[in-house]
């Protein structure tokens, strides 16, 4: 399913998309896209798409804008607390659009309530 | 036990503290002929640069309340009867003692010049002296100091601070003849003259007569003359031994009460300490030996047997803005002593190292223009550590990549690093072992470097060396992407004229960056070039607060604080704020900084709210940024019966000047209209307090978790000079602070402390004053309201939505009412 034009995401930032009632944070890095849950398990707010994107020891991460924990964009794992994970979702760029399959199918812990 | 102390100067007070602590049952009476208890005479000159008598006080009221010390102010002792063991004062007849301590200090020597008792002729010793000098200066243009020694130059600084054309007259062939050699004296003279004072050497004054141009004329022995309005005698001090003499105690040929190594005079129940005491034929005109005598005496009185063993007379000080230090045998009087000399006439630096004939030990040194080696050289001289193979390395400028030949390792643990607060090298190492890693933390835990601050650089290097020894690598690299400090990065950005994060990363970093370095670099770029922070090249670097120009709250909503300069607001605008809050269902609260905070706005509401706010005449308040927040004010002389200046207008002017200025951390300011200080300016990064003559400027205060009173930077500034000082101060902070370092911690960690800041800001010691001002001017000229620009730019405005693919709000954001307002559910 088409989520948005790639151009709607500023490089090295994220946006939040609504997919079947679920909030997904999508990040654009090097013209590739990555998606994890938008829900921040620490602050319990839907804000991960608003975090700063970067890398730590080579791993792509986003820092929660609330309490600054880092989450891997590829595994959803929290760098500071490996017991905590957020779900990772399959997304891709086709043509000029960001596409996704159904979310929540890949990895991670129980999806939190939106 | 009854103890009577005569004199409540610095040393007398220190004695009281030692004795009160050790002998709680002693009945102590102290006579002080001055109208106020002990104050810091060493810092007397700072009375003219803004310090008050209270600031200089060394004897808190609480001390005399808590201890059993009876203080008799304004009461001079007239005689001592050692047989009856009583003293007689101007107001008390027979005051008995078991032990008597003379801490009578010294008096300024006035040379026997004809006319030395004319009006406008003064000495420089007490706060009262300063008050009359200051009053006289107001009706004077020219001032002369007779005496070019250490105290004379201090006094000359005072006259300059008072705005007088200043002359220093010295009988000898060089300034500071005791401490310096000819070359050093010559350099000092040149430097002082460059700062505007005139130095006349080898001039003996014969008499003072009526002047023709000015009020008085100094006639020299050689027949030439100089006219002046005011004369300050500073030709040395003499011990005050007249009471001791009259009581039949042994005194020296050239004055001074003779004491033994336990500070006892020729009468074993009478002690003498400080400048009035003569030990092994020597008097000591410095405070540190006096402090040692104070302790020795207190301990002997309670029955301990401790000895005063002489004292080091090394000094390091700033004379009229020039760094000067003299250590140990500065003149090389030791037989066969060898000298190493280094002169840099371009930079105005002179260094001399005196070593033993076998080149194994340091004997003394002289430093002018650069005293950064003082701590190390003093330690080498005092502790007799072995010299490196090439002793000259100790005074030669450091070459890149080469460490100085002086190893901290050779310093014994017992070596006293901070003589003001008795902190040894060992104590510093212990503090580091207990977790201290910075100079700021060391100051808090040990008091090291908190008085004169001279030991700061040495203490810092001991901390670093100890950390290294413990295997702790201390890097203040920004993060894994940049092996630079913020200060270094700032420099690289500015000098390289780099405008984007990607360029900075490509040139100086590695990897992709992170949530530490991105906002830090964004802040540096904003400070340097002031480009709109939400341009596509800058937006990804911003923390969410800056990205949405509002403050993120715990439930994912934002709060909004429009600018209300100086806290002054028209009723119409107050109503407009209320109307906006009502329209969008926002929780409202008055902030501590005289503004109004609107809470609970969702991302997609922010542009709509700001459209209304801008229409009502508001602009961004930058509450979301590491930037100038607000300038708080009291109503000042517009309304207040006590106000002396218009603090509101000044606050508004300042806020409008610095609004939007991005910095390593947030900046808070305040302006008070009088010394009652209702705006609490001394708890702000920049605080301005009105005086009769203008404004006093305080900096580096803080409230919050670690409150810190601001330090005074300059006093009685007019509007223009005030703004210039703030311009320079802020830009210097922005250039040199670490990321997220408030001005208070910045100052605590700055080697040289507030004096260094004052040199840079007020005296332009680095020669960057104009540059700092130009940087600020560019900021002022390029300011624009970020919210206005964001609303006008469709590309930016369209980012303000929660879902990229839906106009719905975030359904998880819910509110419940409390006291009639919405709060997060």
Folded structure, characterized:
The complex is a heterodimer of chains A (114) and B (825). Chain A has 114 residues and is mostly beta strands. Chain A has one domain (2-100): Rieske [2Fe-2S] iron-sulphur domain (Rieske Iron-sulfur Protein). Helix content of chain A is 0%, strand content 45%. Chain A has strands at 2-5, 14-19, 22-29, 32-37, 39-40, 45-46, 52-56, 59-63, 70-72, 88-89, 91-94, 97-100. In chain A, the strands form four sheets. A four-stranded antiparallel sheet of chain A has the order 2-3-4-10, with no helix packed on it. The termini of chain B are far apart. By secondary structure, chain B is α/β, with parallel strands linked by helices. In chain B, β24 and β25 (362-368) form a beta hairpin. In chain B, α1 runs parallel beside α8 (287-301), α10 packs across α12 and α20 packs across α22. Chain B has a five-stranded parallel sheet. A five-stranded parallel sheet of chain B has the order 9-16-10-11-12. Chain B contains 25 helices and 38 strands. Chains A and B meet through β2, β3, β6, β7 and β8 of A and α15 and α16 of B.
**C-alpha Rg of chain A (nearest Å):** 13 Å
Biggest interface: A-B, 36 and 33 residues
Tell me the helix content of chain B: 25-40%
| Portion of residues within helices of chain A | under 10%
Salient structural properties:
heterodimer, A: 114 residues, mainly beta, Rieske Iron-sulfur Protein, 4-stranded antiparallel beta sheet, 3-stranded antiparallel beta sheet, 0% helix, globular, disordered C terminus, B: 825 residues, alpha/beta, FAD/NAD(P)-binding domain, Arc Repressor Mutant, subunit A, 5-stranded parallel beta sheet, 25 helices, 30% helix
Outline of this structure?
Chain A contains no helices and 12 strands. Chain A has strands spanning 2-5, 14-19, 22-29, 32-37, 39-40, 45-46, 52-56, 59-63, 70-72, 88-89, 91-94, 97-100. Chain A is globular, with a radius of gyration of 13 Å.
Write the layout of secondary structure elements.
The complex is a heterodimer of chains A (114) and B (825).
Chain A: E1 2-5, E2 14-19, E3 22-29, E4 32-37, E5 39-40, E6 45-46, E7 52-56, E8 59-63, E9 70-72, E10 88-89, E11 91-94, E12 97-100
Antiparallel strand pairs in A: 1-12, 2-3, 3-4, 4-10, 5-6, 7-8, 8-9, 11-12
Chain B: E1 2-6, H1 10-22, E2 27-31, H2 53-56, H3 61-66, E3 69-72, E4 77-81, E5 86-89, E6 95-96, E7 99-102, E8 106-108, E9 121-123, H4 127-137, E10 142-146, H5 150-161, E11 165-169, H6 182-194, E12 198-200, E13 205-210, E14 216-220, E15 225-228, E16 230-233, E17 237-239, H7 242-246, E18 257-259, E19 270-272, E20 277-279, H8 287-301, E21 315-319, E22 322-328, E23 338-344, E24 349-355, E25 362-368, H9 374-383, E26 416-418, E27 423-424, H10 425-433, H11 439-446, H12 456-469, H13 486-495, H14 501-508, H15 517-529, H16 544-548, E28 551-552, E29 558-560, H17 571-584, E30 587-590, E31 596-601, H18 606-615, E32 628-633, H19 647-658, E33 667-672, E34 686-690, E35 695-699, E36 711-717, H20 719-736, H21 743-748, H22 753-762, H23 769-782, H24 786-792, H25 794-797, E37 815-818, E38 821-824
Parallel strand pairs in B: 1-2, 1-7, 2-3, 7-19, 9-16, 10-11, 10-16, 11-12, 18-20, 32-33, 33-34
Antiparallel strand pairs in B: 4-5, 5-6, 8-17, 13-14, 14-15, 21-22, 22-25, 23-24, 24-25, 26-27, 28-29, 29-31, 30-31, 34-35, 35-36, 37-38
